[in-house]
Queue: 4 jobs
Job 1
Amino acid sequence: MKIAIFIFSGTGNTYFIGKKLQDEFKENNVLCDLFTVEKKHDDNRLIDDYDVIGLGYPIYGSDVPLLIRNWIDGLNIQNQKKAFVFCTQMMYSGDGAAYGGRLLAKKGFMIRQQAHFNMPNNITDYRILRPFNKHNLIKIEQKKNKQVNRFVKHILTDKKTRKGSNPISLGLGLFQRIPYQKMEMKWISNSIKIEDHCILCKKCIDLCPTGNFEIKDGILKTKNMCFACYRCINHCPVNALHCSKNALVKHPYRGPSERFNIKDVMEDCLITNELVMKQEDSV
């Protein structure tokens, strides 16, 4: 069995779970590659080479990130290729994984497993939300190891476990998703605020998955292409970026483990992608 997991991860939570899934599959002697949808490559050609496809993403207001939605739109129609979906969430998303599963099913995938993984809060400029406590990292890792182990067993035994597919979860998901999608178009795309103490280090330009930032006339500006992944906000070295009108970031979220590096979210997956594409091109 060959498995490919495609992910988008803003600040590392989904990447954290994706890597754990990959490692657990390898422990079971199953080939598993991890790819990021941020990079432009022929994912349809990649998908054809794998037996099972996984999709992972963070949940925003019970909705699938715009980057993932656009990625799914670009997929070819499949003939019931098996797939699993997982999402990372702060609290509760209703049908967070099921919604992505339904989008994939419209492309002809057969969705066998869906899972929700509660992860630390990365929204660091809203005081009403509980801040991340780095002292919980070991406890978080132990708990996620158990969840990942169980999820992988379900996938390898082809046990149908579709979290979020019941009518109650669907209703709760819609309750959050409908207002979020309206807000996404009107507010979120131009939500980033830039403070005067920005030092023009260009880190946000390097990290942004949508290319939302540019420097014009010596000033950092946005192109209204944000979908609130919070990567730039949490990794600004001087905390000059935020979405909240009234609060700056005091305690940025640097990722779900002490070993985490934000560039792993892009570069680790990119290395895998480049190797696979080179192999295909040489055939």
Job 2
Amino acid sequence: MRRPQLSRLEVVLLAVSLLACIVYFAEVSHNSPTFFVDEASIAYNAHTISQSGVDEHGERFPLYFRAFGEYKNPVFIYALAALYRFTGPSVFAARLLSALLGMAAALLLGLLAIRITKQLGAGLLVFLSVLLTPWTFEISRLVFEVAIFPALLAGFLLLLYEASRRMQWSWRIAAGLGALLGLMTYTYSIGRLLAPLFALGLAFFFTRNRRRGIVLTWIVFAVMLLPLATFSLRHPGALSERYKFVTYVKPGDTNTRIVLRFVQNYAGNFGPGNWFLKGDPEPRHHLQWHGSLLLGMVLLAAIGFVVVIRGHWREAWWRFILYGLAVAPIPASLTLDHFHTLRLIALPIFLFVLMMTAIQFLSAEARPRPRARRALLATLAVFLLVQGSIFQWKFYAAPTRVDAFDSYYPELLNAALAQPERPVYLLDKTPAAYMYAYWYATLRGLDLHNFQRASQTTPPPAGAVVISHELPCTSCEMILERGQFRVYKVNSKQ
């Protein structure tokens, strides 16, 4: 049996895809050669787990990782710990893991596109869209827990699509869907809300023949939640502590005020200004004053949305995709942050899926005016690839975002360690900055006994060398000052 030959378009897309993969990994650590404090915390705890199975506080294989006023989610940390077993701790290895997870999401969504459209070209175009879209690309440059969420959601949707084509769901499908929902719950804070909502959305597929499989999926998911329930009982309020600081829902607010703010935030998360012009205002998450989405990708998703509404509304799969698109912004809409792309990461995944039915619709032969439709598809595809390439060029050409990642901290550490006094005292306004010293000392193989954490109530003694974060010094000899940090020697007791 002869294999079908690739069309010219498929050959071109395949060549562009290979080039995009090379560029994707060419400068993995370009985002910053150093870590932001949350990245340092994740990487340091992954290192300690890889070495001795304990976190920075000595807890053995914790479910959640306690870190300066919050608990970090476990899935990414344990994945990085597994990598560190082979590579040892490094910035490059951690950023490489995030990039590999971003590539996995692109591959899974590309495979889903092939399954839906039966077209290799559609799969390649979706694959390229995921790699080039700022929203998904930039998250793959960060060592944050959210980096693994797109791949898990893409895997869930791929398995769900396969399940939607079957009259009955086998126990393997049910177990896989339930397990992926469970992993999403432990991957990032939004998963604790979105995973149950996605599980609820499985009701769209409910039929007499699938009833047992769907119920089994819910049971597997419920079992996956038991460790979370146990942790919450043992540590009441621990996982919701940070939420209190990032939400606008405060005691005493009226229901009307809360609902109005939610509607305002929810609508803003679909705002064209955020999608195409500004993006996330946090420079760690996004290259400033560039849109988070590509216009060609969104136009294809919009066409797909219309196609689904007009022709596929009765299909459970497409009803679930519209439902997923609707619930994806809910976690971010409950917080104070303006267009927080990390908490909105599920949103572009559903837009990519809507692209797939648009590509299928525009490329179909047996429709009125097929040439015009294919011309429109080609135009949008070229526009998408060109705009995505321009963003990539600007991202790599942009100056290092020093302030966003505190990239100067190694210089401060060098200045402190050049002094003979030990230990070096770490005096922080917030209880987080000490992690920089721990992480960079680990990279250099230094014993952490060279450092001592101090506080305003128990200040460093006279003659001590101090690395201070956002706290002024009095009666001190300044050694180096950069950004929010300063290195000095205490002349007398403060």
Job 3
Amino acid sequence: MWFAGVASVQFLAPGVLAWVVAASLALALGFARDRALRLLRRVRVLMFAIVLLFGWFTPGEAMFASWPRLSPSREGMMLALVHGGRLIAVVCAVALLLERLPVERLVGGLYCLSRPFSVIGLRAGDLALRLMLVLRFVEASPRGSATHWKDWLRDAGDDGELQPVRLVRERLGPLDVAIAAALGLLGLAALSWGLPWAA
């Protein structure tokens, strides 16, 4: 359901997206304030890049007619607002998810969901283990510190030993199967709606 919610944000109209961004910000700041602020701080450079690239490199009418060569375009700034809003909504959703769901259960759920893809060569166990290690080191890094990625490869414990990684294998229950089937059918319906022969 979380994946479907995040994916649906990409298709919302700008007016609806504004309400979704406001609601997601209110929920994230209300229930996961520290984590949401930390994640929003970490994407500030990406937000700046979105504004810069869309605002100044999208053709259109200049926002400041007095300086047409230096001004961003109105169309570009609208695109920047839309894409920036989508990013903020997703970051807030990530903050809420990580605040309410332990990392072990999150990775275990992803392991369970990715197991059917083993028929095409995806190794769910390796994927889960790598994700668990990344999340552990990212969460363990001090706030605001400029830790180099090579430091993560060194021993993280005071005693020179890394703590063992425990993978919780989640099982799909009847409600999980029903929700997955409903979301799959909705996805197929949405996909077929846009196909030429469905018109």
Job 4
Amino acid sequence: MVHGPQFPVARSAKFHIFFMSFAPLYTQLRRHAPLWAPFTSQWDQVAISSRVRLARNLSGEVFPVKAPPEVLERLCRKILREAGASPMLRGGIRRRIAELQEVERDLLVERHLISPGLGRGGPGRAVVIAPNQYLSVLVNEEDHLRIQAVAPGLALDRVARLAGCMERALAADCAFAFDEELGYLTSCPSNLGTGLRASVMLHLPASALCGRIERYAKALQKLGCALRGALGEGSEAVADLYQVSNQSSLGEDETAIVERLQSVVEEIITHENEDRLRLVREERVRLDDTIGRAYGIVRFAGFLNTEEALSGISALIMGLRYGCLRSVSAAVLNRLFLDVQPGHLQALVGRHLAADERDAIRAAHVRAALASG
């Protein structure tokens, strides 16, 4: 664990109330490093994590986008009861979104345990997370249920099996809305059919530096896939992290969707590794300049916003892999990648921070971590 500087904090009664209110959740989360962030110094690490999400709605019930609050609350109680009884989720985290502070919601979004949409709150919204955080059930987001499984690296088959196992456990007590022609019925037409959205998070610094990202996006669209930011639909790419996912789940079975995405991702990984080699062999000055500029900014800046910090850390990870940055460890960069995000930074300090104050404390924390790295 990276220990930053001891920031001055007014130890008032208000501070203790604020910190103690979210400290249990923060403590639970920190027991496990996020499964999506195992950055290493391995040259060929491109796939950061794999995820499969299954969208399901309860048969005979109004979907969340149209359901009144009292219906959503009733369904939430039912789903929490059934999900909480599952051995796969027992002993984990179970929270209603409305009962969480803003910083707690940020913590869960930043760890990719809930979507930004669910984090915005609303009646009957909740989440149940397995103790080791590899599996979670989102309640009353766009659909009644979103079953999500995550694993490090390129492991689509594994997460598909995990999500399917959780779905079968819930189906024993919950009948899902299903049509013989359309398959599973969902709020969004693109999820009709299997209700499956598979994705792989990729670290593509060389492809970005070589200007290939737009070409990837166009080619993937023709193959029925999409290239998005790390938080999925509607999110911007930050720190050279991209999510590749299937766009439709109608007309194919789960196996075909997963196999097609696996093939697409493997090809992108090949191109990324080729670009990494080309940069080292043919454009070393440009590569060193990119990494050196990033190091100078994050190592000495007095203020860092979230995007600047994450982009800088991404460049340092690249430098670590290329062997031109030996003073920092992968463990330090992994820890920083979480700590610089708004929710984690405020939890680390133990109080709410205004934007300017957050930028200054973020920069101080990064400087201290890199100096001791």
